[in-house]
């Protein structure tokens, strides 16, 4: 069996890998407990952008956090279970509702929902902490 090694990623590499996939998991607080939801995303100007419904739990948490934003985490990965290699990135930062109409319209074009529901809310996550790791096979 080939040995594996874990390599830490710097912020630049972690954000580049995050931008290379279109989905991940947003982690937020619901009733004082952690909640996780799979969502699709894009990375734009260093922020992670997701679209959701105004009535979704994540939107509710962010909407009621006032102007300061809601602390959330976002995780994405690309793992190959056969080769047992891949990467994972986690960002932690402040999530805020995007309220600029031109930005909302732009993200509506760029970020298509996977489900047949109206996604009327755009959330931008500004990364404060970015961590990542890559599992590589020793040569």
Automatic annotation (TrEMBL):
<dbReference type="InterPro" id="IPR012349">
    <property type="entry name" value="Split_barrel_FMN-bd"/>
</dbReference>
<dbReference type="InterPro" id="IPR024747">
    <property type="entry name" value="Pyridox_Oxase-rel"/>
</dbReference>
<protein>
    <submittedName>
        <fullName>Pyridoxamine 5'-phosphate oxidase</fullName>
    </submittedName>
</protein>
<dbReference type="Pfam" id="PF12900">
    <property type="entry name" value="Pyridox_ox_2"/>
</dbReference>
